[in-house]
Amino acid sequence: QVQLVESGGGMVHAGGSLRLSCNGEGFRRSAYTMRWRRPGPGTGLKWVASIGSPDNTQTYSDSVMGRFTISIDNANTAVYLQMNNLRPDGTGVYYCGRASYGDRGQGTQVTVSS
Length: 114
Prior knowledge:
The protein contains no helices and ten strands. It has 114 residues and is an all-beta fold. It is globular.
């Protein structure tokens, strides 16, 4: 059974940084493209960033390009999201998961104050 656990959220002022972590069980991380999402306008989740399989190609939404970095650990088990120069519109619960599968963990809350 696939399980995903996000952590690392918190409260920061605008311009601050946070590093989110995602640990997964029940699947081989290297076989899947992984993504981070957060709530968007209205209903549903908005894609933030992905790291591909098997080449680890990183892609980002326009709103976070140049400020966020997605990466994996050397053991290829955890996925990270380094978030720099955070803005108040980055507030929300961040979820990781396998792209195209719709799975996610419980999320980790990020709050950015102005």
